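Sorry to interrupt, but I need a hand with the structure work. Leave the record below and I will have a look:
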Amino acid sequence: MSTRCQWLGCRAKPANWLNRLFVFVLLLNSQFVVLSQSDNFNDGDDLGWTRVDYSSQGGPVGTFTVTNGAYRLHYLISSNEMVSFGFPRIASYPADNNVFADFYLQVDLLDWERQLVGYALQGFGLMARAQPDIQTNGFSGYFFLFEPDMFIDFLRFEPDGTWCQCSQDSSILPQDPKTQYRLVFTGTGPALYGQLYDLKDLTTPIQEISTVDSFYAEGICGLWGMDFIGYQNFHGIPTPFTPNSTGPIDATFDNYVATNNPPPITIIHHPSSQTVVEAAPVTFSVQAEGAPPHTYQWMKNGLDIAGAEKARYSLRAELADQGATFSVRVSNSFSTQMSSNAVLTVLSNVTPPRVVNAIGMLDPTKVVITFSKPMSRLAATDPFNYGLEAVGGASPGILDAELTNGTTVVLTTEARIPDVNYVLTVRYLRDATSLQLEISPNPTLRDLAREVQLVAGDMQPWAYFQSDRDPGSGWQRPGFDDAASGWAIGPALFDGKRPPGRTEVGTQPVRTMLNLTNPPTATQITLTYYFRTRFNVPERIEGEKLNLRCFVDDGAVFYINGAEVFRFNMPPPPTVITYYTFSSTFRDAEVYDGPYEVPATNLVAGENLLAAEVHQTNLGSSDIDFAAQLTAILPPPPARLRVTPLGVRTTISWSGAGYLLEEAHALRGPWSLSPLQDNPQTIASDENTRFYRLRQ
């Protein structure tokens, strides 16, 4: 992976543009007049806005439309046109030409073009302290843009199409096509600050970035878009333009605000009072508006809570918290606002803890137990409180017990024998509430579910395809003939690295080396790699669960028998994934991620196919890694009740742990507990008809 390259050392243009400004900050009684611009676009047009597109250079004409109370900026250029005209850009700004020094900008991003063809990347957002002569395309200023990266740029464009990126802070994050965003851009002196919010949750920004630059002291503000088709030298790699690339700048904005007097903190949603049972998790939250950055300090009964400095504060309720008040102080550089008090009511938790599930893991020395509520650490970590009994074999000892997150215990045991069923016994445990409730029933007996391996991680053989294109339709389906299509074969872990020759990644040995470019002497990096492997499922068992662990740099999409089951570090659905789709963020793989639960509904008895496509994060990526492991969680074998006549006596026995024997004289009941619960048990036969059943 790589980060965005920066271009430095650009020389400033003469500042003669100041002579052409129509409006400056005015003085009135020695005080600055507050400049403010806003438009919700509900009037159906963009009157009062100055439109700027690339048509003055001979390129295509941009379109500016207001529909359904939102403002769409659209501009389409192909890679061939870009060769002649340079990077396309489009802008619109209020025609009053108000000049801002300190500024606060806000706009809602409702929609954007999500399907780019070839090597095309668009950015769109806000511009500030920009020179007003953008009709000549000699456009300089500060830009807060959102695309696969979120970044603040100090750019200068020349009439001949050349440009430089002289100061920048960047943070890569995913574009979620189902999410609408709010962009907030603030400049106070040389400090520039950008925030991205989900419009459905304005309490905490999704991402924040900042930088410092003092080159531009003032200028106009507005909306802006730009395309980078072909990425030529954009990531430091000479990359030829792709003839079929198209790069629309297409973004729809709403609720534009610009002011030189940043709004003070206003709390729009105060913390709410809550009633919970003891030991339950509680989260208080606040939603505030105002110029960023925001700082938060939560208080309990009027006293600061150490470390509680986010828009949300979470705790686990205790009886001692009954009646406590929680509030929060929200501040920015201009103001402070106190929230109202939220009261926490805590009720006694009288529900005893239970075992939710118990799984014998792929590691034969590990058993994972999940409880219904947080457990007392003292009892939960005592190995004496657990037993493991083999059904028809030797019983392994319990060596250690670790409480990992309050509700999960990991047992370390002597090694279990493969394909042997085990019964877990849990006794004497108590929950973490003040009542210290005992586990129910005590003791609890539970048949172990078990994790089985379908696809190994290390050394798993895969067919793989590396090229400057995708392998064609149907490559992720079982019927695709990868051998006839020229796919190679190799074991995991797969690794491609610049420079080549790496023998391990983290602690994982490299088994198969990939090329970052195909052929290796090419300058154009391979964007996506494709993998296929087959595995066997001997029988279809209802209720099974699949767990996927993956070792991926940078992003991947997984398929079972042609159906997509999981995306890792990739744009979420409904984004259509193609060879040209970049991963959501860059990352260095060092360990397996997961496990991630994936659907098992499309498994078949017999041979199945796991396929994956691994994507780079950008054209400057310096490595690619891939391995994957697939396991199934098989439920315990079903309980079986046996009634065996032996002359004048009858033996009753059953398999399965934690069951009670019930009996009745008629099939419809009434049913009652059998007086004896021994398994097996022998009773005298008589002329009376009796029915038996099991229940947990």
